[in-house]
Amino acid sequence: MTDNEIIRLFFARSEKAIRACRLQYGRLCRSVAMHVLGRREDAEEAENDTYLRAWNAIPPEEPAHLGAYLAAVCRRLSIDRLRADKSRKRGGGGYRLSVEELDGTLADLSDGPAQTAEWKDLIERFLDTLSADQRRIFLLRYWWALTVKEVARETSCGESAVKMSLSRSRAKLREFLEKEGF
Amino acid sequence: MNTERFHEQLGEIDLKYVSESAPRLKKNKRPWISAVAAVLVVAVVLGVFFGRGGKPESVTPVPGAVKSFAVSVPQYPESVPYPSSEVTGYDEWAKNRMERRQFDGAGSDLKDFFARANAAVLGDIRQNTVFSPLNTFMALAMLAEVTDGNSRAQVLDALGVADVETLRDKTYRVWNANYSNDGAVTSILGNSVWLSDGLEYRQEVLDTLARSYFASSFRGDFSDSRYQNAMRQWISEQTGGLLQQQAGNLDLSPETVLTLLSTLYFRAKWSDEFSESDTADAVFHGESGDVSVPFMHRDDVYGAYYFGERFGAVRLYLREGGDMWFLLPDEGVTPDTLFRDTEAQALMAVMDDWEAQESYPNHKSLKIHLSVPRFDVSSELDLKQAVVALGVTDVFDMARADFTPLTQNVPVAVDQIRHGARVAIDEEGVTAASFTAIIGAGATMPPEEEMDFVLDRPFAFVITGLDGLPLFAGTVWDID
């Protein structure tokens, strides 16, 4: 089933859209949720919330990349859920470590832009300075919150090559943000 | 700068970045993933065609080892054993055989489906391929039985059957017409349904499947190796223990909720056996190169030679039912194209009908010196594309597939259609006889009275069953 067909089901208000999303992108969403939250039951709830959120948003929204859209919603909901649960502070291995890893790069810089749109523009401009391979490794680590080992498996690189690439990208990020005046 | 804020804002980037970087998640690595619905239709077929045999096979629909999973069990008919001599037991066997002939002709209006299926599956593959049109018909018929709405309508359209009631009657009769387990001819269509224990099912459908399709039904946990082993055991049992490799390759994901299985086990002797002393090595000009292989040889094939613009064909009779047809394309023509050739299709359409064969325009009675290589060819195919080409699409689409006659608690769609088949022809023993009469047969126009028909380059074959329906069709490009 293509994304367009699933979107049409959303527009027709057919609940089959949810089933189709679960079948097509359930694994992807659960992967994101699991990497952020680290607990299966939390991940499943976040996944279900994702479909509900999509059901309410489409239409009017009509995402061009449905899988990425659902993954982004799921990531956002998972981070919210993690924050709400103060007792656990930070969740699954991948996300917690990826946040800590960036702490060293960003901590002593001044605050970022006030507006979300400016943030988006800033980060996208930075991503465009990276090579395709560097960008994928960077996003697998910091967007998808995969562990270094998982990134290595995903990209068929050695773990040390992944660590090296991440380290260079972090240095580039810092340089980029400094130039931008932060 | 607040790192968490950075992470949060990173989540807002354009989806193209997200899409490009998405991980390709490995399957079955995450046991916590809840089950998704998928149905796998597997048609595993075996055609063994050895000039041996003699005893009825001990094939039962539900062998002891898988009994604990059974929820519905059909009853196979009794076959009277083929007599070891013509003095005793022959009348009883012949009476039983005549009674079973009442079902003949049930599938004569399925020819269009068989022709389209052959063309869709065999029409473009340039390697050894074996396909069972009849088995595929059975698997799709079961699929029609467990679906409804447009899903069912598309399957019925593809099969060329008006409605599901007609289909039930037809499958019942076709099944019976092709059932024999008397020691002379083994021809058994085995069907079964394998349900996940999470699936709520309607017993009436399973009862219909048992009654009209002779299908056994089983229920268990697909993530439990014992259940999957039971399935393999069932296949092995239905195919005389000769399909263990293909059965072993069946590894279903724990997410499977439903599997429809259909097997065909066929074994028969040549009506007139090849003499072992006439078998000798000769060169087969295969797709991958020349190879020296044993050729069986007969000088006394009296009968019709059929031909078209691009091929010639000879038929060999099987004892007590069925034929094997060899179609040799002309030099420069490949065997796959014969399944789209109108003259070859016209010949295939009359393979079940003696009288119609007489009216096939290009044939001539003469004495044929036949040379055919011994071969044992097998293939494993994914039929999904071919089935889509036949117009069946909704069952593959989770949003459109309608399996409500069978179950309503889990959405189900067909994930794949696998088809494994093997055909072997053989005769025992090879002696170093001096056989040299290998002459390329110019297929188109036959000579006056005698001709050589030498299958020494890629060719096609069709094996018809007890009532003339195509059990197997295939192409032989290379011989090991």
Give a short summary of the structure.
The complex is a heterodimer of chains A (182) and B (480). Chain A has 182 residues and is mostly helical.
List the helices and strands and how they pair.
The complex is a heterodimer of chains A (182) and B (480).
Chain A (H helix, E strand, L loop, with lengths): L2 H9 L4 H22 L2 H18 L8 H19 L8 H14 L9 H14 L2 H11 L5 H8 L3 H21 L3
Chain B lengths: L2 H8 L4 H7 L16 E7 L1 E4 L20 E3 L17 H11 L10 H12 L6 E3 L1 H14 L2 H11 L4 H14 L2 E2 L4 E11 L6 H11 L1 E6 L4 H14 L5 H6 L6 E12 L12 E7 L2 E19 L3 E7 L5 E7 L12 H7 L5 H6 L3 E11 L1 E8 L1 H6 L24 E12 L24 E5 L4 E6 L5 E7 L4
Parallel strand pairs in B: 1-8, 1-15, 2-8, 2-15, 6-7, 13-16
Antiparallel strand pairs in B: 3-7, 4-18, 5-6, 6-8, 9-10, 10-11, 10-13, 11-12, 12-17, 14-15, 17-18
Kindly describe this structure.
The complex is a heterodimer of chains A (182) and B (480). In chain A, 75% of the residues lie in helices and 0% in strands. Chain A is mainly alpha-helical and 182 residues long. In chain A, helix 8 crosses helix 9. Chain A is globular. By secondary structure, chain B is of the alpha/beta class. In chain B, the strands form two sheets. In chain B, strands 1, 2, 3, 5, 6, 7, 8, 14 and 15 form a nine-stranded mixed beta sheet that branches. In chain B, strands 4, 9, 10, 11, 12, 13, 16, 17 and 18 form a nine-stranded mixed beta sheet that branches. In chain B, strand 9 and strand 10 (289-307) form a beta hairpin. Chain B is globular, with a radius of gyration of 25 Å. The termini of chain B are far apart.
Taken from the alpha-carbon principal axes, the silhouette of chain B is globular
- Rg for CA atoms of chain B: 25 Å
Total number of beta strands of chain B: 18
Q: Identify the biggest protein-protein contact and residues per side.
A: A-B, 61 and 37 residues
Features:
heterodimer; A: 182 residues; mainly alpha; 75% helix; B: alpha/beta; 9-stranded mixed beta sheet; 18 strands; 26% helix
